[in-house]
Design goal:
Helices cover about 45% and strands about 20% of the residues. The chain is of the alpha/beta class. It has two domains: about 1-145, Rossmann fold, CATH 3.40.50; about 165-410, no CATH class.
C-alpha cells in the first residue's frame, strides 16, 4: 500500500511541475479551502478536474490518492492507507481524493474522514451517483464545483488571442469557428489534428467504463447504438417510446434506463419543455444536448454539418457553465401555435429570459420566423427580456411592440 501511495506522490509532483492554463470559474480557491465543508469537483472525464484541484492546492501540504489506479483499488485497506498517508505526507492539512467514486463504499469512508476533521477535496465523473450518495450520507456537508470543457473565452486565453486587438480580429473569428466545430476538450485544443481520434476513443471509453461496466450492461450494442443516435440527433426532442421503436430496443423501460445511464458521466443532458403544470412538463419530449461539440464531429453519423445545431449546443453548454440547471432554471418552450423557443431561463417562480439561437438571420423569411416565435412566447410567458444569438449579427430590433436584442456568439461568450 505504501509503495503505491509513494508512486502516486511521484505522479502528483510530476503533474504539478507542468504548466497549465488557469480555468475561469466563479469560485475563489482560497475561500473554498478555508471552508471546512467537503469540496466536490464534478464533471466529465478529461476536462481538467484533477488539474483544477491540484492548482487549488498548489503550495499547500496535501495528501493525494488517485482511485483511477487499479493498484490502489486492488490493495485497498483503509487503515493501511491512512497510516501510509501519514508517513508519505507528514502533517498534511488537506486530502485530495481523485475519482473517488471508483472506491466501493466511498461515501461512508468520506463521511468518516469528514467527521474526523479532515479538510477534503474530492473529484468524480459520475453526476447522479455522486449527488445521490453525497445527499444520502453527507447532506449539507459539501460544496459542489462543476467543471466542463474549456469555454471559448478560456480557449482564446490559451491560444493567446485577444479579440479586442484589431490585428488579431481575423484570428479570433477563425478560432471561434474552430471552437464551434471541434469543442473545448483540453487535450485537443493545442493539437486539433488529434481531435477526432481522441474524442472518438474517449466516447467509447466513457460508454464502456462509466456506463456498461458500472451498470453491468450486457447488451453493449444497444447501448452504443442509442448513444450514437442521441449524438446524431443532438438539439432535437426525444422520447423513450420513439427511441425504443426507432432503434428496436427491448423495451421502453430499458430505453429510459439507458438514457439515464448516459447522463451520469456528463455525456448527455436532457432539457424539459417549460410548462407551469408539472404533469404536462413531465410528459413532453425532452431535447437532448451533448457536453461538447467535438463529440458530434468525431462520432455522430451526420451526413452534413448543421451549423445551427452546433451553435445551439454551444449556447446550451455555456448556460450550464453559468450555473443554469436543466429542469430547474433552464427549459425549452413551444408556444400554443407550436413555435419553438430554444431556451427559457427562470429565476424563482418567474421567467427570467427567452433565448433563441439562429446561426444566420439575414434571410427575411428566417428573420420573421425567429422574431415572431420569440414575441409569441414573450406574450404567453409574460417576459420582455428577449435575446437572439447568431453567429455574427448584432443589432437591436423593435418587433410587434417588443424590443429584441440580437448578439453574435462572440459577444455572448464575453470574449469580444
Amino acid at each position: 500500500m505504501k509503495t503505491t501511495i509513494l508512486n502516486q506522490r511521484a505522479e502528483r509532483d510530476e503533474l504539478m511541475s507542468r504548466p497549465y492554463q488557469q480555468r475561469h470559474t466563479r469560485y475563489d480557491a482560497d475561500e473554498l479551502l478555508q471552508n471546512p465543508l467537503i469540496k466536490l469537483i464534478t464533471g466529465p472525464r478529461r476536462v481538467g478536474k484533477s488539474v483544477f484541484a491540484l492548482l487549488m492546492l498548489q503550495g499547500k501540504n496535501f495528501a493525494y490518492l488517485n482511485f483511477d489506479d487499479n493498484q490502489l483499488l486492488e490493495k485497498w485497506d483503509e487503515d493501511l492507507a491512512m497510516s501510509a498517508l501519514e508517513d508519505v505526507y507528514p502533517g498534511y492539512d488537506f486530502m485530495l481524493l481523485d475519482e473517488v467514486q471508483n472506491l466501493p463504499g466511498w461515501d461512508l469512508w468520506v463521511s468518516k474522514l469528514y467527521r474526523r476533521g479532515k479538510n477534503l477535496v474530492i473529484t468524480g465523473s459520475n453526476a447522479n451517483m455522486l449527488s445521490r450518495e453525497m445527499a444520502t450520507v453527507l447532506t449539507g456537508r459539501y460544496l459542489q464545483i462543476e467543471m466542463l470543457p474549456f469555454s471559448l473565452e478560456e480557449t482564446m486565453t490559451w491560444k493567446n488571442v485577444s479579440p479586442q486587438l484589431e490585428e488579431q480580429a481575423a484570428q479570433a473569428v477563425t478560432l471561434a469557428d474552430d471552437y464551434m466545430r471541434n469543442g473545448g476538450y483540453p487535450e485537443t485544443i493545442p493539437a486539433r489534428s488529434i481531435t477526432k481520434s481522441y474524442l472518438s476513443t474517449l466516447f467509447d471509453s466513457i460508454l464502456l467504463k462509466d456506463v456498461a461496466k458500472r451498470h453491468k450492461v450486457r447488451n453493449t450494442t444497444d447501448l452504443y447504438n442509442l448513444a450514437t443516435y442521441l449524438l446524431s440527433n443532438f438539439c432535437n426532442p426525444i422520447s423513450a417510446n420513439d427511441l425504443a421503436g426507432e432503434l428496436g430496443l427491448s423495451s421502453v423501460a430499458t430505453t429510459k434506463k439507458f438514457c439515464d445511464y448516459l447522463a451520469e458521466p456528463y455525456l448527455f443532458f436532457y432539457l424539459p419543455r417549460f410548462n407551469n403544470k408539472l404533469k404536462l412538463m413531465t410528459k413532453a419530449p425532452k431535447k437532448v444536448y451533448v457536453v461538447d461539440n467535438g463529440f458530434v464531429q468525431s462520432t455522430a453519423f451526420n451526413l452534413s454539418e448543421n451549423l445551427g445545431r452546433l451553435l445551439e449546443n454551444q449556447v446550451f453548454v455555456e448556460l450550464l457553465r453559468r450555473g443554469y440547471i436543466p429542469g430547474k432554471t433552464l427549459f425549452y418552450y413551444r408556444t400554443r401555435n407550436d413555435k419553438e423557443i430554444d431556451f427559457v431561463t427562470r429565476k424563482g417562480a418567474k421567467v427570467e429570459q427567452l433565448i433563441q439561437v439562429c446561426y444566420d438571420m439575414t434571410s427575411e423569411k428566417t428573420r420573421k420566423r425567429e422574431l415572431n416565435a420569440i414575441v409569441e412566447a414573450s406574450e404567453e410567458l409574460h417576459c420582455d427580456n428577449l435575446l437572439v444569438i447568431t453567429n455574427d449579427q448584432q443589432e437591436e430590433i423593435k418587433w410587434k411592440n417588443r424590443t429584441i436584442k440580437v448578439v453574435n456568439i462572440k459577444i455572448f461568450w464575453r470574449c469580444f
